[in-house]
Amino acid sequence: MIVEHLSLVDFRNYAHAELALQPGPNVLVGRNGQGKTNLAEAIAYLATLGSHRVSSDAPLVREGKDAAFVRARLAHGQRRVTLELQINKQGSNRARVSGSPVRTSELPRYAQAVLFAPEDLQIVRGDPSQRRRFADQLLIQRTPRMAGVIADYDRTLRQRTALLKSARARGMKGGQLTTLDVWDDKLVALGSELIDARVRLAQDLADPVAQAYAGVAGEDHRPELSWVLSVRGADPEEGEELPAGEGGSTPELFRSALAARRSQELERGLSLVGPHRDDLLLTVRGLPVKGYASHGESWSVALALRLASAGLLRAESQGGDPILILDDVFAELDADRRRRLADVVADFEQVLVTAAVAADVPAPLRANAVRIEAGAVLGPLSDHPLTPEATDG
């Protein structure tokens, strides 16, 4: 899969932008704050329906405007498809595929991209929500219908939690709240599907993560990943990391855990069981990455997760490789990891790299370099060389 052309209107700091991209490596070079990451973000949004930097859409719309527009022409072999997205500051977004209106949730069926950015260190070092978000975005890319499952689960969770808060305020006991059973049924059905999909994802990522880690770090530190599940008695959100050994199907475990936590949920007005409380446990050398891994190991794990994701999508896709985006990554790596990373990504159909300093990017990836400045695409770097003072960060 290749993005041949990207057009933006009122997206982030771009009033208007046109960017032609080539197969193979492409490098966007510019000082920090000029807009190179915004171009990468726009492409990734089409594939993941979200930003890697903000949790809402409003910041994506240029100041003073009501909507932003992203248009990308993609090549799948000999086939061309044009994706158009209207991102509204308020209200629902709108999408078209080759001119025909579609639900925005359909876009990941046509666009696949994997983006790695410095923010991804939070996947391994941040709170459990960061790891859940990583997993769910990859689930949606693998199986787009999971976007609907996740949205329905979140909606059910909000309604159930609102009921618990109301019951708490009125001092109601479990036996008095029969309507909670209806929401329990919906929570179990949707949540079990999401839990099982996440567990399968971790299993499918195991070998690719180990291979990618070794490729980037040059060492085998036995990286592993597994889910710590609230339906098995753990609560990662409360710091309880060790899962209980109870067996049974996911729906059975879910219902049992809800029953065990019913009084606590009513006391606190919170839904304490479900995939919204789970955590993806990442380890190297048999120890949790969070709290034990070195800075270099943490970077290597985060990179390995994204590279393994790209490898998984590549193996399963009928539309070719996903677009691989490396946003301001090479400046954070030592020379050895830069070289290793360049070797790992060299054979992807299209790689998009952003950098403040072109020299930070290994030479094999610098074939197509474009200068970005002040929300404008200036063209090939050779035609617009950066001055020394323009490359200081």
Structural commentary:
The chain has 9 helices and 15 strands. The chain has a 6-stranded antiparallel beta sheet with strand order 2-1-4-5-6-7, covered by helices on one side. It has a 6-stranded mixed beta sheet with strand order 8-12-13-3-14-15, with helices on both faces. Strands 9-10-11 form a 3-stranded antiparallel beta sheet. It is globular and about 70 Å long. It has helices spanning 36-48, 121-125, 128-142, 146-170, 179-217, 250-268, 289-292, 295-316, 335-345, and strands at residues 2-11, 14-20, 24-29, 67-76, 79-88, 94-97, 100-102, 113-116, 224-228, 279-284, 287-288, 323-327, 350-355, 369-373, 376-380. Helix 4 (146-170) packs across helix 5 and helix 4 packs parallel to helix 6. It has 2 domains: 1-112 and 321-393, Rossmann fold (3-Layer(aba) Sandwich); 117-316, RecF/RecN/SMC, N-terminal domain (Glutathione S-transferase Yfyf (Class Pi), Chain A, domain 2), CATH 1.20.1050.90. It is α/β, with parallel strands linked by helices. The longest helix is centred in the middle third of the chain and has 39 residues, at 179-217.
